[in-house]
Fold these 2 entries.
Entry 1:
Amino acid sequence: MDVDLGNLPSFLRWGVILGLSVLAAGIAIEHLSGNHLIRQAGLFIIVVTPVSFLVALSYRMLADGEYKIAVLSLLTLSVVIISALLSLR
Amino acid sequence: MEPLVRFLEVILSGIGVGIISSMAGIGGGTLMVPLMVLVLGVDVKVAIASSLLTIIVTSASSSTVYLKEGLVNLKAALTLEPSTALGAIVGASITIGLPSNLVERIFGFGLIAISLIMLARTFTRPREEGEVKHWTLGVLSSFFAGMASGMFGIGGGVLKVPIMNLVMGMPIKEAVATSSFMVGLTASSGSMVYAIKGFVDPVLVLGFALGIIPGATLGAKSLKGMKSRYIKLIFALVLLYAGIKLVGW
């Protein structure tokens, strides 16, 4: 692969670290006060991290003129979002 | 005190999964779900959903390294991923619509099939070099790999790597790295369906994620000097046994 991603891959690692930290705090808060919103936010961050990476990747590839990778990335993103929305029905 | 003991139990199980999966060279999903169901007594749908979320964490960790090293074939990953993600969402929707006891049996059959694939791979020589071809076949088979991921809560690397390496002719190192990147995206698609329906157990996700990462490091260190082929063989036989037990034979 001759595409330079720079520091973009670290987005994935930091995304899940953030998600796990929020999840841990959320579990503790839920145990103490019964509020489950922060716990849900932690799960949400983990689930959307790979999808958000695709958004960042598309943006980076468009900026670098790598249109093929950008289009493929946006295509994957649309399939995931449309299918998830359809599964809500 | 009981929730803390339970949490420690989950972390220890995660360490075990990390050690074994890194020694056998596979993702943790195939081991996590049977462990949650047969040992921790978790409902199979909750186990599948929680396993998928844990897979996102482990995949993010490994694919960050692979992406930085330039080992991921982005063109292949992003060409195959739309059909894989679609398959994962279809698979997850099928599992949610079925009763838990039937899902357990189907999962058992799936596990038997995966263990047989693993046994076959133990005796197959992977392609070290080659040009990527048979794209249409790759896209079609990826749909089924995604479906297995969404249905059974596995990353699907056990299917994706042979598809890319043996069917599409991608060199094995590139196939492993590309699959590792795709696994996170596929698990994200499948887990969205389960998370929306409220099947995820956050304690399982956190405990397994915290256990697997040090477990995998420990497993990789203890692998030195051991023959990975025999470990894979033993692991495939353990999965076969777990599959038979889940089917209820």
Note: Chain A has a mean pLDDT of 90.
Entry 2:
Amino acid sequence: MKILVCISNVPDTTTKITFTNDNTEFNTAGVQYIVNPYDEIALSRAIELTEGGKGTVTVINVGEAANDPTIRKALAIGADEAVRVNAAPRDAYFVAKQIAEYAKEKDFDLILTGRESIDYNGNQVAAMVGEFLDIPSISIIKKLEVDGNTATVEREIEGGKEVVTVSGKFVASCAEGVAEPKIPNMRGIMSARTKPLAVVDAVALEEVTKITKYETPAPRGTVKLIPADQTESLIDLLHSEAKVI
Amino acid sequence: MSVLVYVEQAEGKFKKSVFEAVSYAKAIADQQSTNLTAISIGDVAENELKELGKYGASKVLNVSAEQLKTFVNQAYASVIAAASEKEAADIVVLSNSFSGKGLAPRIAVKLKAGLADGAVELPSNDGKFSIKKTAFSGKAFAVTELTSANKVIALNPNAFGVKENAVEVAIENFSADIKQSDLGTVIKDIVRATDKVSLPDAELVVSAGRGLKGPENWGMIEELAGLLGAATACSKPVSDADWRPHSEHVGQTGIAISPNLYIAIGISGAIQHLAGVSSSKVIVVINKDPEAPFFKVADYGIVGDAFEVVPKLIEALKAHKG
């Protein structure tokens, strides 16, 4: 089984998010980058599914050379090879197109992504890749089992889940539950240095979105503290002052 | 030119988030001086479809093809794209629900459209069609201009509100050619916890963290949530320890929510947790540690032991409800 896992290079989850240039650019100063945590889940499941010579895992990233350390991290976790599409990842539409173009050539059985990237929270790439390739896509899965040519997945829905089967090639975006994220061991880190990381050119695509400005949430006023022995007054405040109950 | 809104049904009914999407789409149609058409797929009774008129849909396309009774995002996307063509709709709106997230990107590719998902406001009316959407897991917003001719918007629940705007509504049957290859996914089972409020849509949320000490202590959290009609949620360490299911985990790597009221009990407020809940309208924090970072972003706080405070809240709430 040949699996392609799409990874994003995102700011570490503890990053304080700030912007520069009149709030038009994300301030990358001092930011540590990581493999998007959901993509790690997808990658970990891909490794489990191919362990013991049952297949190969390729990771793909759309980004510039600065992303290579993050891609090496994915190789250290256990991917067999990597490819980077050499272009700034302008938006999900562009990224998905690049991945679809690469996947079209290579004939993967399964393409996995994380449920969303923790920077732009898109959750778009998996379904867009599916559409570009005209194959099924299943978003936000919590379980993935593969039996021969058929896969069974559990997809999250409001207040429950759907059990879905799919045959043949498909794309899925993975959430918690699909696998425990694997942590690279020393052998993985050493071998990652020599695993293949190919760099390919991007295909041209018309622009469909453009981020023009960032905003940070309005700061809240100071907290109104209620003494623990007057707990009941909280209910009155929520009812008559905040008007939420 | 017109606006098309996809109205997702669950067991033949529309949820509040759907009426919200219709209200939002109607406001865009008004901005653009055009009409709003809704498209419903699956088994929905006529009186339920007529409800959509209350929020501004003047036409409803009803798709009841047998093979589309259950959700298949690939085929649904084809039908919605066909409807947008028929209606000459250059703007397609839907809820940013779990199904919406699997659908909107496919529609966007079909229509070669820019997609704003997680939209929290109306598009700007300055000819640029810029939409504010959530980014960095609630730590920021990105104002995104949709520069393509066609546009798709997935609206976050609880972001716009339901606005009544009654119009005469005409219901039409609609069908589109379905390719067999569009039906590649098959639903074998749907498991729904019917007695619980669904977290992403919830207006009120009661959430608890490690301060609760163990899963056996969640009884009071569920009781409080039950009295409020709230959904229950939890922090990451709690779902990691399997005290609660992953589907309840809110935060940067869980789900982001924006309820009217978020009550955090025994959660210290790590930056990753705050990211997922900071767009809640009112935040109440109950923690025995007065230095807990969560108090800095709270509207109301009680410094106290959850095991004393929560039972008192339950009593007070019972008294309040009479």
Note: Residues 92-106 of chain A form the longest helix (15 residues).
